[in-house]
Design goal:
The complex is a heterodimer of chains A (about 375) and B (about 475). Chain A is mainly α. Chain A contains 14 helices and no strands. Chain A is globular, with a radius of gyration of 21 Å. Chain B has three domains: about 100 residues, no CATH class; about 120 residues, no CATH class; about 160 residues, no CATH class. The chains are: A mainly alpha (about 375), B alpha+beta (about 475).
Chain lengths: ~375, ~475
C-alpha cells in the first residue's frame, strides 16, 4: 500500500495526538464524577483507566504491525466478511455518538456555567456545532497537524494550572491509599469509561501509519505522559478540596483559583483555562470525527463533508432535545452505557488480537 | 509570411502591421541599394542607431543579409525571416534593418528607455544588510540575481504572457536544488495564462495560485535580490515579471513572513527576539479588539478588578455598545489607513495628524468612543504592521474575529481561532503545507523557526521544500586539542 505524502500519520503525530487531546477531555466534569464513588482514591481509578487503555493501545500497535498498511475496516472485512465489518463499524459509530453526547453536553454546561454566567443561552454554544462539523469534514492528516500545534498548548496550560494549585494542595488528603476499597475504585473507573477509551481511535488510524522502527518505544511513553495529566488532576482535585470535593462540579476552574498569585494579580489562570478549552474543543469533536469516518467506510460515501454535516446535525438534535434531561442522560451513560463503552473501547480491541487472516506473516508463510 | 525581396512590398506590409505614430522609419542608400530601418521612438537609443548601425552599414561594398549582420556593431543581433518576427522585434524595442533585394532582415538591440535606478525598497528597509531592491526592468533584476549567484545552476526561463502587453515573465531557480516537478508545474500554469495584459506580478499570482478563493496568500513576495537568492537556494522557484519590482516565490509558507531579511545579518538572539515579538504583535493585533469586546459583553470576570474599574469609568456615558464602538473605531482607523496610503506624501502627514490626534482626541472628549477602545485599535493597528506582508489578510481576519466575539463571546472566539488553525493546517500550495515547519512538524527546519539557531547550524536545506540537494553547507570541525 502506498502512503500519500500529505495524508498519513507518522508515529510522532500519534504521540503528539495523544498528548494534545487525551488530557483535554478529562479535567472538566470527570473529577466530580469520579469522586462520587472513589473519593480519595479517585486517582487510583484514573490510573486504572489509563492502564486499561494502554492495553487497547498495545492491541492497536500489534494489529498495525501484523497488517502493515491495512486499515481496521479491511482487517475486519478479511476476517469477518464485509457484513461483519459493517456491524462492528456501526457499533463503533453508535459508541462514538453516545460518547460525544456526554462530552459535548459537559462542555456546553461548563461554558454556560462558568463563561456566560449572566447571558446563558443555547445561542452562545451554537458555534461549537459549526466548528464540530468543520473539523469532522477534514481529512485525517489535518488532525495530525493540529495535534502538532495543540500539544504544546495543552501541556503548557496544564502545567500552569497545576503549578498555580500546587501550593494549596494537601497531598496528605489522599492517604491512606485504597481506604475506600477495591469495589469503589473499580466502580469509579467504570463510571469514567465514557471519558476514557481514547486509545481506540488508534484502530482508525492504523491504515494511515507507515511502518516505523521503535514505534512501541515512542508511543507508550507518550501515552503514559498524556495519561499522567488526568491522574495528577484527580490528585490535585482531591488534595485541594478534600472532603468538599464531592460538592465541586468543575475542577478546571476551581483548583487554581485559591493561588496567592491569583489573589494578587487577578484570574490569569483563565489564560490556561482558555488554552484547555481551545484544545478541548477539538478533543470533544474527536468522537464525532471518527463516527463520520465509520459512516464513510460503511456506506462508501465519496463526499465526507455531507456525512460530517449529517452527524453534526444528529448530535445537535440530541443535545437540543435532551437539554432539560442532561442529568438523567449522563446518569444513564455512567450507570448503564459504561458497559457498552467497556466493550467497544477495551474488550473489542483485545478481541481484535485474534484476527489473523490475511496478516503479513501469514502471507509470507503461504509464499514459503 | 516570408519577407519579400522587394523593399517596396515590405514597406507596404510593415505600414499595415506597424501603423502607429511612434514607429519611426529611415531610408538611405548604400552601394546603389536602399536600406530601410524601422524602430520605435522612446524605446531606442538614436545615437547608438546612428553610430553602431547606420555608420557601419554605409561602409558596405555589397549589401547582403550576411554582410549587414557582420558589419553592425551591436552585441545582440538576430536574422529575421518573417514579417511577424519583424513586428515582434520592433515592439520589443529592437531596430530592424531591411534592404532592397534582400529576402530577410536583421534586428539589432539598440534599446534605451527611462528606468528607475536601483534603490532601497520602501517596504523592506533594513539597518543591516544589503539595501539594493528590484526595479521595474527585468534585465536589471536578472543581472542583480546573477551577481549574487555566480553559478551555471542558476537558470532563468523567459515566457511572454499577455495578449496586448506581451510581458516577459521570468522563472528562476537553481537546478539541482529545486524539487523535481515544481518548476515544471509553475511553467505549465504560466503557459496556460491567457489574458490581455500582465502589468504587475500580482496579476499572474492569481493564475498560479492553487486555491483561488483562499483568504491567505499563496506566494511569497520580495523586493530584494538577496532575499530571492536565499529563497531559491532553499529550493523555491522565483518569478520575476518585467515591469514589476516585486518578485514572487513558491512554495510559500506562513513562517516566511515572520522572518525578516535582517534576521540573517544580526545575532541569532536578536533575530529570535524579533521573530517572537512579531508573533506576539500579530496575536495582539488580531485578538486585542475581539477579546476586549467579548470581555466587556460576556466575561467581566476575566478582567482584573482595578482594570475593570478603569474601563467602567472610561465607558461611562458612551452611547455605543462595546462591539459597535469597536467596529466604529476600527472603521475610522481603516479609513485613515486607506487615505494616508493613497494621498500625496505631504497631505498624508496632515491626514495622520488630523486623524490620529484631532479626530481621536475629539471623539474621546465628545464621549462618542472610549479611550480604551481607541487605544486598543491603535495598538492593534501598529502591531499589524510588524508583519507588513500579512497586513491585508490579517486585517480581514481581525474583523471576522471581532464580529464573532461581539456576537457570541470568548468561547466562540476560541473556536473561531481553532477553526482558522484547522483551515491553515489543511492548506497546501504546491504540495507544501502552509504551517510548515510547525504543522506538520519538521524538527530539522525549526532551526530557522521563531527561535532561530545560529547560521552555522543550518547545515541542511529545509526538508519542507523537498530539495533533492539536501546539504547546503559543510562545517569542518577542527579536532579538539586535548592539550596532551
Amino acid at each position: 500500500m502506498e502512503y500519500k505524502a500529505n495524508d498519513h500519520f507518522r508515529i510522532r503525530n500519534v504521540c503528539l495526538f495523544l498528548i494534545a487531546f487525551l488530557p483535554a477531555t478529562k479535567i472538566f466534569l470527570l473529577p466530580s464524577v469520579m469522586v462520587q464513588a472513589a473519593r480519595s482514591d479517585m486517582w487510583i481509578s484514573a490510573a486504572l483507566n489509563v492502564l486499561l487503555d494502554s492495553l487497547t493501545l498495545v492491541a492497536a500497535l500489534v494489529l498495525w504491525k501484523r497488517y502493515e498498511g491495512r486499515d481496521y475496516y479491511d482487517i475486519l472485512s478479511m476476517n469477518l466478511g464485509k457484513t461483519g465489518a459493517n456491524i462492528v463499524y456501526a457499533l463503533y459509530f453508535l459508541c462514538f455518538v453516545l460518547k460525544s453526547y456526554t462530552l459535548i453536553s459537559e462542555q456546553k454546561l461548563y461554558v454556560e456555567r462558568t463563561l456566560y454566567e449572566n447571558t446563558t443561552t443555547f445561542f452562545t454554544f451554537l458555534p461549537f456545532f459549526f466548528f464540530c462539523g468543520y473539523l469532522a469534514s477534514k481529512k485525517l492528516f489535518v488532525l495530525g497537524r493540529l495535534a502538532d500545534i495543540m500539544f504544546l498548548i495543552t501541556v503548557a496550560s496544564l502545567v500552569i494550572l497545576y503549578a498555580l494549585s500546587f501550593a494549596n494542595t494537601d497531598f496528605g488528603a489522599v492517604l491512606p491509599v485504597g481506604v475506600n476499597g477495591i469495589g469503589k475504585i473499580l466502580s469509579s473507573s467504570l463510571r469514567a469509561l465514557n471519558w476514557f477509551g481514547d486509545s481506540v481511535y488508534l484502530f482508525f488510524l492504523i491504515g494511515r501509519i507507515p511502518p516505523e522502527k521503535k514505534a512501541f518505544i515512542k508511543l507508550l511513553p507518550s501515552y503514559f505522559f498524556a495519561g499522567l495529566f488526568p491522574v495528577i488532576c484527580m490528585l490535585m482535585f482531591y488534595g485541594t478540596f478534600s472532603s468538599l470535593a464531592m460538592r465541586q462540579e468543575f475542577a478546571l476552574t476551581e483548583i487554581a483559583k485559591y493561588s496567592v498569585a491569583i489573589n494578587n494579580i487577578g484570574r490569569f489562570d483563565y489564560i490556561a483555562i482558555f488554552g484547555l478549552l481551545f484544545t478541548g474543543g477539538a478533543a470533544m469533536c474527536l468522537p464525532l470525527y471518527f463516527a463520520t469516518e465509520c459512516l464513510v467506510k460503511i456506506f462508501g460515501f465519496k463526499k465526507k463533508v455531507f456525512v460530517a454535516l449529517g452527524v453534526t446535525v444528529l448530535i445537535f438534535a440530541m443535545i437540543l432535545l435532551l437539554k432539560e434531561h442532561y442529568a438523567a442522560a449522563i446518569g444513564i451513560s455512567i450507570r448503564y452505557l459504561a458497559y457498552f463503552f467497556l466493550l467497544m473501547s477495551n474488550v473489542m480491541p483485545l478481541l481484535s488480537l485474534f484476527l489473523k487472516k490475511g496478516a503479513k506473516d501469514e502471507k509470507q508463510k503461504d509464499r514459503n | 509570411m516570408k519577407i519579400a525581396k522587394e523593399l517596396a512590398k515590405s514597406k507596404k506590409k510593415l505600414k499595415n502591421l506597424l501603423g502607429s505614430d511612434d514607429v519611426k522609419t529611415l531610408s538611405f542608400e548604400v552601394s546603389g541599394k536602399e536600406i530601410f530601418l524601422v524602430f520605435l521612438d522612446g524605446l531606442t537609443d538614436k545615437q547608438a542607431i546612428g553610430r553602431q548601425i547606420m555608420l557601419p552599414l554605409k561602409t558596405l561594398a555589397e549589401v547582403t543579409l550576411d554582410s549587414m549582420e557582420n558589419c553592425i556593431l551591436e552585441p545582440e543581433l538576430k536574422k529575421l525571416s518573417s514579417y511577424a518576427e519583424i513586428e515582434e522585434a520592433v515592439l520589443a524595442g529592437d531596430t530592424v534593418v531591411l534592404a532592397d533585394g534582400v529576402a530577410g532582415a536583421v534586428s539589432a538591440s539598440a534599446k534605451m528607455f527611462e528606468k528607475r535606478s536601483v534603490a532601497e525598497p520602501p517596504t523592506a528597509t533594513v539597518l543591516q544588510g544589503p539595501r539594493e531592491g528590484f526595479v521595474e526592468t527585468l534585465q536589471t533584476n536578472v543581472g542583480m540575481m546573477r551577481r549574487r549567484l555566480k553559478t551555471q545552476d542558476l537558470k532563468f526561463e523567459q515566457y511572454t504572457v499577455g495578449k496586448y502587453s506581451g510581458t516577459t515573465v521570468c522563472v528562476c531557480y537553481v537546478a539541482g536544488v529545486v524539487r523535481p516537478g515544481l518548476k515544471e508545474k509553475i511553467v505549465k500554469k504560466i503557459r496556460e495564462i491567457d489574458m490581455d495584459a500582465v502589468l504587475d506580478s500580482s496579476y499572474i499570482a492569481h493564475f498560479l495560485a492553487e486555491h483561488n478563493t483562499s483568504l491567505f496568500k499563496q506566494f511569497g513576495t520580495t523586493e530584494k535580490p538577496d532575499i530571492l537568492a536565499a529563497k531559491i537556494l532553499e529550493g523555491r522557484v522565483g518569478i520575476l515579471v518585467d515591469g514589476s519590482p516585486i518578485a514572487l516565490t513558491a512554495p510559500y509558507i506562513l513562517l516566511e513572513d515572520f522572518q525578516s531579511a535582517e534576521d540573517y545579518y544580526v545575532s541569532r538572539y536578536r533575530a529570535s527576539l524579533g521573530r517572537v515579538i512579531r508573533l506576539i504583535a500579530t496575536m495582539i493585533s488580531l485578538l486585542a479588539p475581539a477579546i476586549f469586546v467579548a470581555a466587556q459583553l460576556f466575561h467581566l470576570q476575566i478582567i482584573p478588578l482595578t482594570f475593570l474599574l478603569t474601563i467602567v469609568n472610561s465607558i461611562k456615558g458612551i452611547p455605543l455598545s462595546p462591539s459597535f464602538e469597536m467596529f466604529f473605531t476600527l472603521l475610522i482607523f481603516e479609513v485613515l489607513n486607506e487615505a494616508s496610503v493613497r494621498m500625496p506624501k505631504y497631505v498624508g502627514m496632515v491626514v495622520s495628524i488630523v486623524g490620529g490626534l484631532v479626530l481621536g482626541e475629539t471623539a474621546v472628549n465628545a464621549g462618542i468612543i472610549s479611550a480604551p477602545a481607541l487605544m486598543i485599535i491603535a495598538l492593534s493597528g501598529i502591531c499589524l504592521y510588524t508583519t507588513p506582508e500579512l497586513e491585508r489578510q490579517f486585517s480581514v481576519i481581525r474583523v471576522i474575529l471581532l464580529f464573532v466575539a461581539g456576537a457570541f463571546g470568548a468561547y466562540a472566539l476560541l473556536l473561531a481561532i481553532a477553526a482558522f488553525f484547522i483551515y491553515l493546517c489543511s492548506f497546501e500550495n504546491y504540495d507544501t503545507p502552509l504551517l510548515a515547519p510547525y504543522a506538520p512538524m519538521a524538527p530539522k527546519d525549526l532551526k530557522d523557526g521563531f527561535i532561530k539557531k545560529d547560521q552555522g547550524d543550518e547545515v541542511l536545506r529545509p526538508v519542507t521544500f523537498q530539495s533533492p540537494n539536501k546539504v547546503r553547507m559543510r562545517v569542518r570541525k577542527e579536532k579538539k586539542d586535548n592539550g596532551v
